[in-house]
Design a protein that fits this description.
By secondary structure, this protein is α/β, with parallel strands linked by helices. Strand 3, helix 1 and strand 4 form a beta-alpha-beta unit. The protein starts with a strand and ends with a strand.
Length: about 260
């Protein structure tokens, strides 16, 4: 399988509009981060998109990607779902509704924010979605690929991460309870959010918390995503991280 990082930034991206922070002014392409999203390509060639934020169109064109078969959504905040309308060309090309898998609460929000996609009489060119609601106890299959929802907390908001094969993708969390953490032990690959070094945040892991989690669950490799400019310059932070823990960056592809 392959994992491709379409974006690795927070809700504002890097650079932040109007910011004079040194990281926002960096010329290093690894310090320029669009909103967090990845494409998983399974062994049978199915393209699974996790989250679809406001940069989706730019991400697909910039990386010469042209197909998505299924979308998994972690939660309903705009930086994770507001790009769903830009799936229209793919929906029309494939001539079928786009399957969306998400928490029941997220399904309701999608129908509120994109009501025209669910109208009985649709406007010509509107997107069409098949929405499937998930429960954390129930793994499901996309083709022959098993996917297990992982229930985590974004502040007080319950959201989903996903375990796919021997990889887990988790973003926008600051707490994982012991039961859900059991799903994460001894992974080949963990992708997890890391906002900054300090201070602590009410709804996102910071670096010290992520490193403590990694030490506990011991994945073979870890990549950090959903990164703000306050974490620091990519190359400097990368050199400070423990062995087998890395910063992801936009355009990075990993085999797992």
């Amino acid at each position: 399988m392959k994992l491709f990082f379409l974006g690795t930034g927070t809700s504002q991206g890097i650079p932040v509009i109007g910011s004079s922070h040194p990281v926002c002014l960096s010329k290093n392409f690894k310090d320029k981060r669009l909103r967090s999203s990845v494409i998983i390509t399974t062994k049978n060639g199915t393209h699974i998109l996790i989250d679809c934020g406001p940069d989706f169109r730019q991400q697909m064109i910039g990386n010469q990607k042209d197909n998505i078969d299924v979308v998994l959504l972690t939660h309903e905040h705009n930086d994770h779902i507001i790009g769903l309308d830009d799936l229209r060309p793919i929906i029309h090309k494939n001539n079928k509704d786009m399957p969306l898998y998400c928490h029941p609460r997220v399904a309701k929000e999608i129908k509120k924010r994109f009501p025209y996609a669910f109208s009985v009489k649709k406007y010509p060119g509107a997107p069409s979605f098949d929405v499937y609601t998930l429960e954390k106890e129930n793994p499901f299959f996309i083709s022959d690929t098993k996917i297990t929802p992982i229930s985590v907390y974004h502040g007080k908001l319950p959201i989903y991460g996903y375990q796919i094969d021997n990889m887990a993708y988790i973003t926008d969390t600051n707490f994982i309870d012991a039961k859900e953490k059991e799903k994460l032990y001894n992974l080949d690959l963990l992708v997890i959010n890391c906002l900054r070094k300090k201070p602590a945040h009410h709804s996102h892991f910071i670096l010290s918390e992520v490193l403590e989690l990694v030490k506990e669950i011991q994945p073979q490799k870890t990549y950090l995503t959903h990164i703000s400019h306050h974490l620091g310059f990519h190359d400097e932070v990368e050199n400070e991280l423990p062995e087998n823990t890395h910063l992801a960056y936009d355009g990075l592809e990993i085999n797992f």
